[in-house]
Design a protein that fits this description.
Blueprint lengths: L4 H5 L7 H15 L8 H17 L2 H12 L20 H8 L18 E7 L1 H6 L1 E12 L14 E3 L8 E8 L2 E8 L8 E3 L11 E12 L8 E4 L15 E7 L5 E4 L2 E9 H6 L1 E6 L5 E6 L8 E4 L5 E2 L4 E2 L2 E8 L6 H13 L6 H8 L1
Parallel strand pairs: 1-9, 11-17
Antiparallel strand pairs: 2-7, 3-6, 4-5, 8-9, 10-11, 12-13, 14-17, 15-16
Helix pairs in contact: 2-3
Length: 367
């Protein structure tokens, strides 16, 4: 028995939208084809995960799917993979079509929607933090300009299909456990185009589309997280029939920064201070992600590993009007290659200290 979409994503039937999204992101990263070149099993798993998430993340499709499962159905014709599966022509596929559903064709076929395209995008730490625009090159099927996507020479060398009357669909009836069901199906004579090509277009060989590189200007909002998946609707594969285009799925990698780390909107930075600065206190210059420096008052007696918060000096979420903080952790550095004179002065200084001036040592002795 085929796995249900809930089993594919590893979630319960009561999973929330956030739980679905989290499960999808994890599995999409795990089985992404770019991480498993030539691995057909991983590619099929990736398509299966996309299909499950596309259905369950849509409230209407999820309700229809749950209703089918309750009725004993085992397949659902709304997937992004275009592979159909063993149950692609089952009653439940046709049941979906009665409500306007269409199976998605991963190859940009005549009767299905366009397939999704997945790309990896790398952003710098600053680009992910503050947002940016990038030009992305997408290799996909586009309608042939010579035949205007018809597949016919000069765009006119075709006749109306007599089997479907030029509509691209035929009505048919099917006996089911629920009674006689009448629904629409793509015409098998014209492939759902509504026309028969008399003389194929020499530019595209009658396919109506050609694979080419398209440049897209993509806006990445501020606060993009590492390994985040962005979906750009309608920028996937095009189809010959003009059906709904697939989506462009961007898997985002964020390059590490040489100084900073991120935790939500907060920025984290470690800074070295001398032992005299820590003992006596000092004003320390702390770098920011934007390149300027902030004078930070380091208190007297600071200990290595202490973290201090510089409020609202982190990242910003303009939509929610929130600002993160800059969390500064100090690392006390001891000098090396001391001279004989320096050693003598430090020894004298050490001998002048009283035991009660060492909090940790005093507590350790007590324990």
């Amino acid at each position: 028995m085929a796995k249900s979409y809930y089993e594919v994503l590893g979630v319960s039937k009561t999973a929330t939208d956030d739980e679905l999204k989290s499960a999808f992101r994890k599995l999409a990263r795990q089985y992404h084809p770019d991480l498993h070149p030539g691995d057909e099993a991983a590619a099929n798993k990736f398509k299966e995960v996309n299909e499950a998430y596309e259905t369950l993340s849509n409230a209407q499709k999820r309700a229809e799917y749950d209703a089918m499962q309750a009725g004993g159905g085992s397949s659902f014709g709304g997937g992004a993979s275009g592979s159909g599966g063993a149950g692609a022509n089952s009653f439940f596929d046709e049941f979906v079509n009665m409500f306007g559903g269409e199976r998605r064709g991963g190859s940009g076929g005549a009767s299905g929607n366009g397939g999704d395209i997945s790309l990896n995008v790398t952003l710098t730490f600053e680009e992910a933090a503050y947002g940016t625009q990038k030009e992305i090159t997408v290799n996909r099927f586009e309608p042939c300009a010579a035949c205007r996507g018809t597949g016919a020479k000069n765009g006119t060398q075709f006749v109306k299909c007599t089997n479907c009357g030029g509509t691209g669909k035929v009505r048919y009836a099917q006996e089911t456990p629920f009674g006689r069901v009448v629904s629409m199906k793509s015409c098998n004579v014209c492939g759902g185009t509504g026309r028969i090509v008399k003389e194929p277009c020499t530019n595209c060989g009658g396919r109506g589309s050609l694979r080419k590189n398209s440049n897209l200007r993509i806006t990445f909002p501020p606060g993009v997280e590492p390994n985040q998946i962005m979906t750009i609707p309608g920028e996937g594969e095009r189809t010959r029939s003009g059906s709904k285009a697939g989506n462009l799925i961007l898997n985002i990698t964020v390059m590490p920064h040489k100084l900073f780390k991120r935790k939500g909107l907060d920025l984290l930075v470690d800074i070295p201070v001398s032992f005299t600065q820590a003992l006596l206190g000092d004003k320390v210059l702390v770098p920011t992600l934007k390149g300027n420096k902030i004078a930070f008052p380091l208190p007297e007696g600071a200990q290595s590993g202490m973290t201090f918060k510089l409020k609202e000096q982190g990242l910003e979420n303009p939509k929610k009007q929130l600002k993160g903080d800059l969390l500064v952790t100090i690392d006390i550095e001891l000098p090396k290659n001391l001279t004989k004179e320096q050693k003598q002065k430090i020894k004298e200084l050490h001998e002048s200290f009283k035991p009660e001036q060492y909090d940790k040592a005093r507590e350790f002795i007590k324990k």
